[in-house]
Amino acid sequence: MKDTTASMTAMGVALMRSLHTRIDPKPLINDHWGEQLVPAWVQDAMASRIPREDGSTTGEPPPQAVRDSVMRAHPAFSNVVLRARYTEDALHDAIRRGVSQYVILGAGFDSYALRVPVEGRDLQIFEIDHPATQALKQQRIAECDVQLPDSVHFLAADLAAEELADVLGRSAFSPSQPAFFSWLGVTMYLTREANMATLAAIANCSAPDSEVVFSYVDQQYFEQASGREAEIFAQLQEAVSSMDEPFQSGFNPRELAGDLANTGLLLEEDIDDVALQQRYDPDDLNGFKSAARSHIGRARVKGIPAQR
Predict the structure, then answer these.
(1) In whole angstroms, what is the distance from residue 131 CA to residue 2 CA?
(2) Which of 23, 54, 122, 235 is deepest in the core (most CB within 10 A)?
(3) Element (H, E) at 101
(4) pTM for this one?
(5) Residue 106 — left, alpha, or beta (φ > 0 → left; ψ -120 to 50 → alpha)?
């Protein structure tokens, strides 16, 4: 992603959530906001890259049915839906335990603040993202004539240049109270060093028993040269690289607990998309094409945060 432009992948993810809500027979989430928040010109620009049957492109966006079909077939589609459902379930479990702060790292065009359910009505919500992406999102929220409550806080920041604790320190966030952090669709775009630093920052700036849910790609797919899964992952890599947002690193599931322990976090669960589909759509009513390469981890801040 260029420093002056909003993330195209963030907008693509929002459109996938909307598409799932609109067309799938048994939606796991109720999120129609992407198709309202993502500007029409962006949607048209994305669609204009869809090739015709002969492989050529006209530069003109195809009919909506073609757009839907291509996006529905995207290799990231099932992961986007499953990780959203898992995260909101985990968030609502945390709320029932008394957590009242929700921090969304790399918030992109996440719409939770626009559709807060009864469970989240007392939450303080903190959205952290790159200034360019967040500025476009806020512009679109205003253009949709939506007035958000004072409990929603937008924190524009580049976490590669500013410490997470300092970013949260500019807001009403209370480091003495447990918080729930979500970090979805981000780790694969960062180096391993940046990922470990962010996880350590979460442990250091939040109270014991805070939680974080984060998605990641199994590291083996950055190294595996053959097999159907490797081919699909290579296609996905090519797609995100074409948007100037290339994948950079993953985690090894067998080493994840140790990696997290070194940052001050205790692994609670690590689950791939195949298992998530069995949990949420065991009868395969939505026809997901889930893959073991995509994982989601849930971790808790230990009693004594790690020191950097």
Answers:
(1) 11
(2) 23
(3) strand 101-105
(4) 0.90
(5) left
Render pLDDT for 56-96 as a digit per residue (tens, 0 to 9). Answer: 566 677 889 999 999 999 889 999 999 999 999 999 999 99
- List the one residue out of 151, 128, 113 whose CA is nearest residue 37: 113
Contacts (Cβ under 8 Å, ≥6 apart) of 153: 124, 125, 126, 127, 171, 172, 173
Q: Is the dihedral of CA 233, 13, 163, 181 positive or negative?
A: negative
Helix 8-23 × helix 40-47 angle, to 10°: 90
Tokens of 3: 């420093």
Residue 142: which H helix or E strand, with range? helix 131-143
Query: Does residue 190 register a pLDDT over 50?
Result: yes
What DSSP assignment string belongs to 229-296? HHHHHHHHHHHHHTTT------B-GGGHHHHHHTTTEEEEEEEEHHHHHHHH-TT-TT-----TTEEE
Report residue 210 CA to chain centroid gap. Answer: 19
Residue 238, C-beta contacts closer than 8 angstroms, at least 6 positions apart: none
Q: Return the CATH fold of 77-301.
A: Rossmann fold (3.40.50)
CB 297 within 8 A of CB 253: no
